[in-house]
Write a structure and sequence with these properties.
Length: 214
Protein backbone atom coordinates (compact mmCIF):
# COMPACT_ATOMS: atom_id res chain seq x y z
CA UNK A 1 0.00 0.00 0.00
CA UNK A 2 1.32 3.46 -0.91
CA UNK A 3 -0.45 6.48 0.53
CA UNK A 4 0.01 10.24 0.34
CA UNK A 5 -1.07 12.43 3.25
CA UNK A 6 -1.72 15.95 2.02
CA UNK A 7 -2.55 19.05 4.01
CA UNK A 8 -1.05 22.35 5.12
CA UNK A 9 1.65 22.53 7.79
CA UNK A 10 0.27 21.55 11.18
CA UNK A 11 -2.64 19.57 9.73
CA UNK A 12 -1.44 16.47 11.60
CA UNK A 13 0.22 14.59 8.74
CA UNK A 14 3.21 13.53 10.81
CA UNK A 15 1.11 12.37 13.77
CA UNK A 16 -1.26 10.39 11.60
CA UNK A 17 1.58 8.94 9.53
CA UNK A 18 3.22 7.60 12.71
CA UNK A 19 -0.03 5.95 13.73
CA UNK A 20 -0.43 4.31 10.32
CA UNK A 21 3.13 3.03 10.54
CA UNK A 22 2.23 1.24 13.76
CA UNK A 23 -1.11 -0.05 12.48
CA UNK A 24 -0.07 -1.24 9.02
CA UNK A 25 3.71 -1.75 9.11
CA UNK A 26 4.17 0.95 6.54
CA UNK A 27 7.18 3.21 6.28
CA UNK A 28 6.78 6.95 6.87
CA UNK A 29 8.65 8.94 4.25
CA UNK A 30 8.75 12.53 5.46
CA UNK A 31 10.87 14.83 3.31
CA UNK A 32 10.76 17.39 6.15
CA UNK A 33 12.33 14.84 8.54
CA UNK A 34 14.89 13.82 5.91
CA UNK A 35 15.85 17.44 5.30
CA UNK A 36 16.11 18.19 9.04
CA UNK A 37 18.39 15.14 9.41
CA UNK A 38 20.53 16.44 6.53
CA UNK A 39 20.72 19.89 8.15
CA UNK A 40 21.75 18.33 11.46
CA UNK A 41 24.39 16.15 9.78
CA UNK A 42 25.72 19.15 7.83
CA UNK A 43 25.58 17.35 4.46
CA UNK A 44 25.74 19.43 1.23
CA UNK A 45 21.95 18.96 0.84
CA UNK A 46 21.42 20.11 4.43
CA UNK A 47 23.60 23.18 3.99
CA UNK A 48 21.69 24.15 0.84
CA UNK A 49 18.28 23.46 2.38
CA UNK A 50 18.69 25.16 5.74
CA UNK A 51 18.17 28.80 4.73
CA UNK A 52 15.22 27.89 2.51
CA UNK A 53 13.57 25.95 5.32
CA UNK A 54 14.17 28.72 7.84
CA UNK A 55 12.28 31.08 5.52
CA UNK A 56 9.42 28.60 5.14
CA UNK A 57 9.93 28.27 1.40
CA UNK A 58 10.19 25.06 -0.60
CA UNK A 59 13.44 23.20 -1.19
CA UNK A 60 14.11 22.33 -4.85
CA UNK A 61 12.07 19.58 -6.45
CA UNK A 62 15.22 17.75 -7.59
CA UNK A 63 16.60 17.50 -4.04
CA UNK A 64 13.45 16.16 -2.39
CA UNK A 65 12.61 13.73 -5.21
CA UNK A 66 16.15 12.31 -5.04
CA UNK A 67 15.75 11.84 -1.27
CA UNK A 68 12.46 10.00 -1.76
CA UNK A 69 13.91 7.69 -4.42
CA UNK A 70 16.86 6.78 -2.18
CA UNK A 71 14.63 6.07 0.82
CA UNK A 72 12.25 3.90 -1.20
CA UNK A 73 15.19 1.84 -2.39
CA UNK A 74 16.30 1.32 1.20
CA UNK A 75 13.12 -0.68 1.99
CA UNK A 76 11.72 -1.85 -1.36
CA UNK A 77 9.28 -4.36 0.12
CA UNK A 78 7.53 -2.00 2.52
CA UNK A 79 4.51 0.14 1.68
CA UNK A 80 5.02 3.88 2.08
CA UNK A 81 3.21 6.84 3.60
CA UNK A 82 4.36 9.99 1.91
CA UNK A 83 4.21 12.81 4.46
CA UNK A 84 4.97 16.28 3.13
CA UNK A 85 5.73 15.00 -0.37
CA UNK A 86 4.78 15.72 -3.13
CA UNK A 87 4.42 19.46 -2.56
CA UNK A 88 4.40 20.65 -6.18
CA UNK A 89 3.02 19.39 -9.48
CA UNK A 90 6.60 18.67 -10.60
CA UNK A 91 7.15 16.50 -7.52
CA UNK A 92 3.89 14.67 -8.23
CA UNK A 93 5.18 13.87 -11.74
CA UNK A 94 8.51 12.70 -10.29
CA UNK A 95 6.71 10.50 -7.80
CA UNK A 96 4.79 8.84 -10.64
CA UNK A 97 8.11 8.05 -12.35
CA UNK A 98 9.76 6.90 -9.13
CA UNK A 99 6.90 4.51 -8.33
CA UNK A 100 6.48 3.21 -11.88
CA UNK A 101 10.21 2.48 -12.15
CA UNK A 102 9.89 0.37 -9.02
CA UNK A 103 6.70 -1.44 -10.03
CA UNK A 104 4.64 0.37 -7.38
CA UNK A 105 1.49 2.45 -7.53
CA UNK A 106 -0.40 4.95 -5.42
CA UNK A 107 -3.45 3.58 -3.62
CA UNK A 108 -4.80 6.58 -1.72
CA UNK A 109 -4.31 10.31 -1.41
CA UNK A 110 -5.80 11.56 1.84
CA UNK A 111 -6.30 15.27 2.33
CA UNK A 112 -6.51 16.56 5.91
CA UNK A 113 -8.84 19.56 5.79
CA UNK A 114 -8.13 22.23 8.39
CA UNK A 115 -8.84 25.77 9.43
CA UNK A 116 -5.74 27.88 8.78
CA UNK A 117 -6.07 30.25 11.73
CA UNK A 118 -6.31 27.35 14.15
CA UNK A 119 -3.20 25.90 12.54
CA UNK A 120 -1.05 28.86 13.47
CA UNK A 121 -1.89 28.27 17.13
CA UNK A 122 -1.30 24.53 16.73
CA UNK A 123 2.09 24.97 15.13
CA UNK A 124 3.55 27.83 17.15
CA UNK A 125 2.74 26.00 20.41
CA UNK A 126 4.16 22.61 19.51
CA UNK A 127 7.40 21.14 20.80
CA UNK A 128 8.94 17.70 21.24
CA UNK A 129 11.04 15.76 23.70
CA UNK A 130 14.66 16.16 22.59
CA UNK A 131 15.38 12.59 23.59
CA UNK A 132 12.47 10.40 22.38
CA UNK A 133 10.61 12.79 20.05
CA UNK A 134 7.24 12.64 21.84
CA UNK A 135 5.12 15.62 20.81
CA UNK A 136 3.69 18.22 23.23
CA UNK A 137 1.86 21.53 22.99
CA UNK A 138 1.91 24.67 25.16
CA UNK A 139 -1.89 24.74 25.35
CA UNK A 140 -3.20 21.34 24.35
CA UNK A 141 -0.78 18.76 25.73
CA UNK A 142 1.70 19.53 28.47
CA UNK A 143 3.74 16.78 30.17
CA UNK A 144 1.97 15.40 33.27
CA UNK A 145 4.90 16.55 35.42
CA UNK A 146 5.98 19.99 34.19
CA UNK A 147 9.28 19.88 32.34
CA UNK A 148 9.58 16.07 32.37
CA UNK A 149 8.78 13.89 29.35
CA UNK A 150 5.88 11.46 30.07
CA UNK A 151 7.41 8.78 27.91
CA UNK A 152 11.14 8.78 28.68
CA UNK A 153 11.70 11.13 31.65
CA UNK A 154 14.00 13.48 29.75
CA UNK A 155 13.98 17.15 30.78
CA UNK A 156 15.20 18.44 27.41
CA UNK A 157 12.68 19.67 24.86
CA UNK A 158 13.03 21.32 21.47
CA UNK A 159 11.09 23.43 19.00
CA UNK A 160 11.49 23.56 15.24
CA UNK A 161 13.12 26.82 14.15
CA UNK A 162 10.48 27.22 11.40
CA UNK A 163 7.53 26.94 13.82
CA UNK A 164 7.30 30.72 14.42
CA UNK A 165 4.31 32.71 13.20
CA UNK A 166 6.01 34.55 10.35
CA UNK A 167 7.52 31.40 8.85
CA UNK A 168 4.29 29.48 9.39
CA UNK A 169 2.39 32.10 7.34
CA UNK A 170 4.93 31.70 4.52
CA UNK A 171 4.63 27.90 4.70
CA UNK A 172 0.86 28.21 4.40
CA UNK A 173 1.13 30.56 1.44
CA UNK A 174 3.49 28.06 -0.21
CA UNK A 175 0.94 25.33 0.43
CA UNK A 176 -1.89 27.30 -1.13
CA UNK A 177 0.13 28.39 -4.16
CA UNK A 178 2.13 25.26 -4.94
CA UNK A 179 0.78 22.22 -3.10
CA UNK A 180 -3.01 22.67 -3.31
CA UNK A 181 -2.79 22.45 -7.14
CA UNK A 182 -1.47 18.90 -6.75
CA UNK A 183 -4.88 17.67 -5.57
CA UNK A 184 -6.70 17.90 -8.93
CA UNK A 185 -4.00 15.67 -10.47
CA UNK A 186 -5.00 12.87 -8.11
CA UNK A 187 -8.69 13.75 -8.16
CA UNK A 188 -8.68 13.03 -11.87
CA UNK A 189 -7.54 9.50 -10.97
CA UNK A 190 -10.32 9.05 -8.40
CA UNK A 191 -7.96 8.29 -5.49
CA UNK A 192 -8.52 11.36 -3.26
CA UNK A 193 -10.41 11.16 0.05
CA UNK A 194 -10.95 14.00 2.49
CA UNK A 195 -10.82 13.86 6.26
CA UNK A 196 -11.68 16.54 8.83
CA UNK A 197 -8.24 17.31 10.25
CA UNK A 198 -9.73 19.53 12.99
CA UNK A 199 -11.37 16.53 14.71
CA UNK A 200 -9.80 14.73 17.69
CA UNK A 201 -6.64 12.83 16.73
CA UNK A 202 -8.27 9.43 17.33
CA UNK A 203 -11.27 10.39 15.21
CA UNK A 204 -8.96 11.45 12.38
CA UNK A 205 -7.14 8.11 12.61
CA UNK A 206 -10.45 6.21 12.55
CA UNK A 207 -11.58 8.15 9.47
CA UNK A 208 -8.33 7.33 7.69
CA UNK A 209 -8.62 3.69 8.68
CA UNK A 210 -12.13 3.58 7.21
CA UNK A 211 -10.77 4.90 3.90
CA UNK A 212 -7.88 2.42 3.82
CA UNK A 213 -10.25 -0.45 4.56
CA UNK A 214 -12.46 0.32 1.55
P1 LIG B 1 7.63 19.76 6.99
O1 LIG B 1 8.35 19.07 8.11
O2 LIG B 1 6.95 18.81 6.06
O3 LIG B 1 6.71 20.85 7.48
O4 LIG B 1 8.77 20.49 6.12
C1 LIG B 1 9.59 21.49 6.67
C2 LIG B 1 10.26 22.30 5.55
O5 LIG B 1 11.09 21.42 4.77
C3 LIG B 1 9.30 22.92 4.56
O6 LIG B 1 8.81 24.19 4.99
C4 LIG B 1 10.20 23.05 3.32
O7 LIG B 1 11.12 24.13 3.46
C5 LIG B 1 11.01 21.76 3.39
N1 LIG B 1 10.33 20.64 2.68
C6 LIG B 1 9.83 19.50 3.23
N2 LIG B 1 9.30 18.70 2.30
C7 LIG B 1 9.44 19.36 1.12
C8 LIG B 1 9.07 19.07 -0.23
N3 LIG B 1 8.42 17.93 -0.55
N4 LIG B 1 9.38 19.97 -1.18
C9 LIG B 1 10.04 21.11 -0.89
N5 LIG B 1 10.40 21.47 0.35
C10 LIG B 1 10.11 20.60 1.36
Amino acid sequence: MNIILLGPPGAGKGTQAQRLVDLHHLRQLSTGDMLRAAVKAGTPVGIEAKAVMDRGELVSDAIVSALIGEELDATPETGAIFDGYPRTAAQAASLDDILTQRGRKLDHVIELEVDEDALVERITGRYTCASCGKGYHDRFEQPREPGVCDRCGSTEFKRRPDDNEETVRTRMAEYRAKTAPVLPIYEARGIVSRVDGMAEMDVVTASIEAILGQ
